Amino acid sequence: MALNKKSSATIRASRYANRDNTWLCKFNYSEAKGLGREIGVDRRDPSSIIKVQGIYYVYYTRSEGPSTFDRSNEKDKKFPWDFADIWYATSKDGINWEEGGCAAKRGPSGSYFDRTICTPDVLAHEGKYYLVYQTMTTTEFYTGGNERVGMAISDTPEGPFEPLEKPLFEAEKAGVLFDDEDSYNTGEFYGNCHDPFLMRNQGKYYLYYKYGSRKAEGGGPLRAYAGRDTRWGVAISEDVKGPYIPSVYNPVTNSGHETLLWNYKGGIGALINRDGPEANTVQYAEDGINFEIMSVTQLTPQAGGAYIPEDGNGHPLDGLRWGLCHVDEKGGDWNYIYRFDTEAGQADVLPVNNPPHLYRGE
Amino acid sequence: MALNKKSSATIRASRYANRDNTWLCKFNYSEAKGLGREIGVDRRDPSSIIKVQGIYYVYYTRSEGPSTFDRSNEKDKKFPWDFADIWYATSKDGINWEEGGCAAKRGPSGSYFDRTICTPDVLAHEGKYYLVYQTMTTTEFYTGGNERVGMAISDTPEGPFEPLEKPLFEAEKAGVLFDDEDSYNTGEFYGNCHDPFLMRNQGKYYLYYKYGSRKAEGGGPLRAYAGRDTRWGVAISEDVKGPYIPSVYNPVTNSGHETLLWNYKGGIGALINRDGPEANTVQYAEDGINFEIMSVTQLTPQAGGAYIPEDGNGHPLDGLRWGLCHVDEKGGDWNYIYRFDTEAGQADVLPVNNPPHLYRGE
Predict the structure, then answer these.
(1) For the segment B87-130, what is each residue's pLDDT rounded down to a tens digit?
(2) At a CB cut-off of 8 Å and minimum separation 6, what does A93 contact?
(3) Contacts of A345 in chain B (CB under 8 A)
(4) CB atoms inside a 10 Å sphere around CB A290
(5) Which residues of A touch B293 (CB under 8 A)?
(6) Nearest-CA residue of chain A relative to B296?
(7) Rounded CA gap, A304 and A342, in Å?
(8) Exposed, middle or buried, A142 (CB in 10 Å: 0-12/13-18/19+)?
(9) What is chain A's mean pLDDT, rounded?
(10) How far apart are CA B163 and CA B265, in angstroms?
(11) Best of A21, A178, A225, A338 to disrupt the B interface by mutation (most B CBs within 10 Å)?
(12) What is the ipTM of this complex?
């Protein structure tokens, strides 16, 4: 049988391994009862979900009152994640949730977290509970300056969580620059560290975060490939409380907005949701750094956090079986939390018993 | 500024050019009035849309009666595209459609198109109208044998369309085999040629078609990367009536189910919808063969056909501004036709004013 010549698509195909459907997945959505839409309250950015003595815990950004989406008055709440604190909720079944109260509060005026704390993640390890979250000062919130990651620690999942005196991690001041002009990962990446996500892996601590150009984050023009100019970095520490050293391999993705990762087989799985050429892909890195595309999906959960069971059956998507995400509605309506369930081995195609316009609720 | 080390994602990023949002797009859906759901009738696989003296024409697969989805009795209509003919509809505005009647009928018993003709496309050129469609014989329909592409020609868009005596194109009997074992485009691809799509470009005729392994098409297990094991080939001819010679570069994609392409700047744009590692991407090939990824999208139209204006304003997505697609509902409900409109420069993110479960009509 003669060999054909290789088209561009076949040349690219050498990068896509020949797999079965193990990593394939589609997402189903349902209500997270007790965390649904509530007038006057924004709830968003749910953390990973932990289970303590049979009870599920989730942590999330919570703020009250309308958002202006306008920088003209620094006293106004600008975004749903402005003037926010970290709250928690509990559930016996992962479906019915009860808000438990404030887990971590923003700091006093002049502190590194005096404006807002938001986009939390949680790690439970050896009887301690570690919350990480993005912090902003009032000054920085209005200038788009470098943000920091804060940490608060508790002996119980309900708190009280004691914040560290200093930031856990501060974004690199300078961007990174690669010399390949045509690459999507070339250029300067300004120092920001959004959506921190803390993993324990191979005895070390991996702090993932989103970063990109300020322009991209500040509502600049969308770039090709599905959206904004964002990607993820990672900083690694021997100790959960730091210091976290940014990987010299940053950025570790070329795409992705909010961080969502899970442990699998000594490595780390990642759901790259919107933004970038690899938007809507499931990826895996044996070393937590060099991620490979494992499957392509769509309608991914936004700002999701999953329950990562310690007793999974060894399926790579065990750490993504279900979780919570948020509905971030345009026009300033109230953000709220939703549940997703991941169906492994399935691809999402067009509507079943419903015309496609219903997909968008048009 | 020091150079960082390149992560796997940054190495991959060298393949994603540094673009603006020109090729970015999202799809909005609405009713194609007059071609909506009708009990007892399947309408699907709309062709490209042509405009003749101010009237839009579309051609599509039409069949009547329920489908069994079962091979046990060859006299039964198995699929919505079984025992089908090609019909046409007209519209003044692209929204309100009127079914015009049968444009091309399947052939007499024993002919190469005696079982069904389906998945049409149309090309208007110099006062002639060329319909292409997939043909199947009764024998082949039940054994999964090689299919053929048929052509029928008319002097008017309403017909009568006269079928060619012989098939326009027959799939390569043998598959292609590449020597790179790890590549997604390695392996044998059985001879089939579904969803023919006929383009005129640079004075030649390009007949695109979908092909893959029989296993993939026969409902075998889904592969990773978003679905089935399908991709596109192209066969090129100097004359619209053939002979069409398969490109030695086949396959020209590594992904994609139903074909949807358009002319742009002397090259050809392609919407890769579901299936494969590059599902949900917009691509472009200057030569109609070597396609590059231009943007990433989601919720793509299924089996779509677009209106390709001759007087576009030079935007790459002019040939994808609007068109028709189908709703192929699971469980044997009636297939019907829907309209899509393409919003350029925008990425599709999660719901606006609606919870995500409405996306799927759950």
Answers:
(1) 999 999 999 999 999 999 999 999 999 999 999 999 999 999 99
(2) none
(3) 222
(4) 18
(5) 12, 225, 277
(6) A225
(7) 12
(8) middle
(9) 86
(10) 32
(11) A225
(12) 0.88
